[in-house]
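In response to reviewer comment 3 from the previous cycle, which asked for concrete evidence that the modeling workflow produces usable outputs, we include below a single protein chain processed end to end. The sequence was submitted unchanged, and the resulting structure tokens are shown without manual editing.
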Amino acid sequence: MRASTTRLLIRHAVAMPGRGRRMNAEDRIERAQKLYEQAVYGGDARVLADAERDLDAVEADAALARGRILHARYLDERARGDTPPVEDPAELPLFERANELYQALADTRGQAEALFWIGCLHQIIRRDNETAVPHLERSRQLAAQVGDRSTEAEALRHLGIAAHMAGRLDEARERLEESSRLRRDIGALSGVAANMVGLAYVAAAQDRHADALATLDEADAIAQAHGAHAVVRQIEEARTQI
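The workflow returned the following structure tokens.
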């Protein structure tokens, strides 16, 4: 695979935003306050453990959200191309803290998402698939256990990218197609179009050039219909490479 194609795979490997899923922070903080009052005025200190768990969940959600913001800043710097983007040293510790808290809370869904972002950082920012892939695999497994198709689709997409970069083209195609199936199921059609760009590169690498161009045409129709302008730019760039 050409080095320029490898760079395009990394450049276009943009993860979709995380999705809300649990009791919100305001509710958890309010409940922690009530449990505090119950302990202080009612004399039942046993409820403090529940209050701490609520606050740990708030901290985990906040750490994950803050880490995603730092990741988005990195992607924005990369897209502008004025200077090489620089990893924010706070990003990985935020994702690792979220993972640690979710694991202690037995929040499998949260842990799957945190592991995905750890893997994504290693793959996209550090260009280290050897470290990224085990996190992405574990994320996919946990997400599948709890029926979190969004995170499972994300993990599969990035596993497909890793396989493509390693020259395992059949595996890359399988991963990206499965990710697309899940994204179609949840209505994430802009994400389907993004995956199809990757599938077009795979097809071109397998000397299936007609399939590659047809895939880009279909991806363009989907992206245009859903206002996915960043994906349209990826498609235009792919046409010049394939």
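The chain has a mean pLDDT of 91. We consider this sufficient to address the reviewer's concern, and the full set will be provided in the supplementary archive.
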